[in-house]
Write a structure and sequence with these properties.
single chain, 281 residues, alpha+beta, Transcription Regulator spoIIAA, five-stranded mixed sheet, three-stranded antiparallel sheet, 12 helices, 10 strands, 41% helix, 4 iron, 4 sulfur cluster binding, rSAM, catalytic activity
Length: 281
Amino acid sequence: MDAYAQAGVNRLSFGVQSLEPRVLAALGRTHNPENVLLAVTNARAAGIKRLNLDLIYGTPGESIDDWRATLEGVIALAPEHISAYALTVEPATPFGQRVASGEEGPDDDRQADAYLLAEGLLKAAGYNWYEISNWSLAGEECRHNLVYWLGGDFATVGCAAHGHSGGRRWWNVRTPERFIERVETGRDCISGSEEIEAGLRLEEAFSLRLRTRAGVTPSEAAESVVRDLIDGGLAKWVPSAAGAAGPRESEARRALVLTPQGRLVATDVTARLLLAGAAVR
């Protein structure tokens, strides 16, 4: 921690996932809740001023009370930023293989209840939602991730890293061994690349901004679909966000932003808007 701080690192992210030992065991994680407190304490002692704690909800066997205890425990540690992600099943992982063999997988309804609980507790504790799975104290949004979500350019550092510049996207070799070998032999670490055509760039930018509190502008959203979304409680018009402002936020004085219920079905909402001609006008 001291070495990081002395090198100028001012933000760390810890993969907490849960503060319930049996949930950690179900996830195959080897740390315990005491490690989390120790890590946060050491980071603060070293002078790291910005911390994010990552959580996972919806693990089979995790009760809503388990999840509440994790949220309350993490809030008590007072990080500047909290991320909460729904557990997903990746086929190639041990968990994915167990689910494929008949073991219980994540339940959509329980995950929805867990998400709404997180939104309520985090908001009450002063954490502002600004992207589907991310909340922060005022001014503590993750600038790194905002570059992705708002369509900026970013470089690659490390194995499997992705980069983007001016409509070109590229990615490095996936494994640490191959990455190290290429660095040591002075070879390029890029594994592949693609040029993103203009229409797809617009769709991607639209889809990513809709996931944030920047939202999308009136000129980008099909009016008939917007009416249905608002009537269904899935979206609302708000003043353009300042904390996570999109590139066109000065163009209109309001933005269409998903409600907590709308965030639960963000993929479907985005698809409806795109099919209606949003983002390509």
